[in-house]
Amino acid sequence: MTERAGLVAGDGQPERSVGRAAHDRGDSAPCGPCGRHPRGDRRHDRGLRDRRCSVTRLVCETRCVPRGRKRHLTTGVGREEMNASLQRMITERLRPAGFVGSYPHLRRHSAGRIDLISFQFFSSGGSFAVEVACVPPDGTVSASGARVAPARVRARDVGRPRPRLGSEQFPSGDHWFHFGPRTYESAPSVPVSPPDAIASHVADLIEDQAEAFWAVNPFPGTHD
Fold it and tell me: Do 60 and 89 fall within a single domain?
């Protein structure tokens, strides 16, 4: 622990700060006098400022991300809950419909095509989009010119068309599902919905918009 010059705690003693090296080591002791979060939290490591942590001047909230977890599974408030709801929906509604693959990329093989679904989360948390695509049963060719096998193809390997579910102009337009604030927001800037409700809505859109799209989608997608 090292003292930071110029900062004085409420008891008149110099404030103390957890060093970056301690964070990087992932020490299990609490983060300074806030006493709530273990050293090694990514929110602390990123050095985001917030007056509510009077000692380290870093964000100390329950949305801190434990060091060592995969960023794409934990970014932002509600991300773990959103992932859990989507995975339950996949198990209950998409697996019985024939979809295989590892979340967030799913595929369904049939005699004439491969139907694709990909969940794409916003880099700063709080929302995600669901992209769908369709390729021939023997796979596709990526933008780099590489051949992608049927067992490995993902929606993002397709250039166009690759629409996003939920758009009122589907299969054109754009749409994001909002479940919480961005990592740089203290509260959501747009209306949000509970994770389970969003997951159920996504499943309904797959049955409605996606199934109709897959039935008529032309091959192949383009990358221009």
Answer: no
In this structure, are 95 and 180 located in the same domain?
yes
Tens-of-pLDDT digits for all 224 residues of the chain?
Answer: 444 444 444 444 444 444 444 444 444 444 444 455 554 555 544 444 444 443 333 333 334 444 444 444 434 458 999 999 999 999 999 999 999 999 999 999 988 899 999 999 999 999 999 999 999 999 998 888 889 999 999 998 888 789 999 999 999 999 999 999 998 888 888 999 999 999 999 999 999 999 999 988 756 555 54
Provide the domain count of the chain.
2
Give the 3-state DSSP-derived string for the chain, with helices as H, strands as E and coil as C.
CEEEEEEECCCCCEEEECCHHHHHHCCCCECHHHCCCECCCHHHHCCCECCCCCCCCECCCCCCCCCCCCHHHHCCCCHHHHHHHHHHHHHHHHCCCCCECCCCEEEEECCCCEEEEEEEECCCCCEEEEEEEEECCCCEECCCCCEECCCCCCHHHCCECCCECCCCCCCCCCCCEECCCCCCCCCCCCCCCCHHHHHHHHHHHHHHHHHHHHHHCCCCCECC
pTM exceeding 0.70 = no
